[in-house]
Model the fold of this input.
Amino acid sequence: MLKIALVGYGQMGKLIEQLAPQNDCEIVAIIDPLLDNEINAETVADADVCIEFSTPDAAFENIKKLIDLEKNIITGTTGWYDDLDKIKLMVEKKGTGFIYASNFSVGMNLFFSIVESTAKLINQAKEYDLFGLEMHHKKKKDSPSGTAKVLSKIILENIDRKTKTQYEKLDRKIEKNEFQFASIRSGNIPGMHSISFDSEADTIELKHTARNRNGLALGAIKSAKWINNKTGFYNFADKLNEITG
Done:
């Protein structure tokens, strides 16, 4: 049975705790500022793998501490990716294992591939303009979502006429090379992301809607099982087939 330490005890941490026993995992530690404890050699001593779902301002330090303690790590926290290269160097130096994802849902990672394939087709159909929209619950602390940033990257890499993403509202006419991706935060929405392609004749919409967070939690648990006793720095999307079997 895989022994897991949870770093962050918000909605995702609680859900992973709930789903762990039925997936042959045991939660041996829960670390969160609200529980008045912290990451150290004692609190994570029994853990095979640490799963980190905290906040954008805490993620880098949490991950750094866990790497220093030579722990393998899964992180689903977004909003800190400017420091991703630093973490990669630390992982390589310590010889630990690390997996990150903007979204651990298998369905969302399939959606990434669908958007990429469609974008390549739309690149040749210049009569279509495009835009993105994402919606999340009111407690989400980063905007745009990490998933929105991944989708934007896919669009910019595959549609030549779009070279820049605009996440903020515009008080001017949008430029032809700009791709606008809007965000909404309200209520208890687990997550919705859509990419739309619009012409004078019609609109094509690609959309992923999460019914709940179970897919995210199960993806993180499967990743924890996969990274146990492995070394290296990985993006969940790149190892999706191996991780999900």
